[in-house]
C-alpha cells in the first residue's frame, strides 16, 4: 500500500463527495464534519456511485435507492447485516490530500 495524491483542499465542498479512479480502484472521497473520508465508491445494491450521495453526519445515502453507509467505517446501516465497504486511510499534507490504496 502507498499513499497517492488525489485532490487538494477546497476541491470538495462541506458534505460533498467526489469519485476517484486510483489505479483501477473506484474510491469515493468525502468531506464532512471538517474531515476527509475515503471508502469504496460503489453501493453493493446496484453498483451506483456513492460520491454524489447526500451526507448527514457520518452517513452517506446512495442516490439510486437510498441505501445508507457510514463513511468512517464503510458499514451498511440498513437492509443487510454484515455488509461493509472498504475504507481507506486519508492523509492531509498542507493543501494536498492523499489516500492509502
Automatic annotation (TrEMBL):
<dbReference type="GO" id="GO:0051537">
    <property type="term" value="F:2 iron, 2 sulfur cluster binding"/>
</dbReference>
<keyword id="KW-0411">Iron-sulfur</keyword>
<feature type="domain" description="Rieske">
    <location>
        <begin position="4"/>
        <end position="99"/>
    </location>
</feature>
<dbReference type="InterPro" id="IPR036922">
    <property type="entry name" value="Rieske_2Fe-2S_sf"/>
</dbReference>
<keyword id="KW-0479">Metal-binding</keyword>
<protein>
    <submittedName>
        <fullName>Rieske (2Fe-2S) domain-containing protein</fullName>
    </submittedName>
</protein>
<dbReference type="GO" id="GO:0046872">
    <property type="term" value="F:metal ion binding"/>
</dbReference>
<dbReference type="InterPro" id="IPR017941">
    <property type="entry name" value="Rieske_2Fe-2S"/>
</dbReference>
<keyword id="KW-0408">Iron</keyword>
<dbReference type="Pfam" id="PF00355">
    <property type="entry name" value="Rieske"/>
</dbReference>
<keyword id="KW-0001">2Fe-2S</keyword>
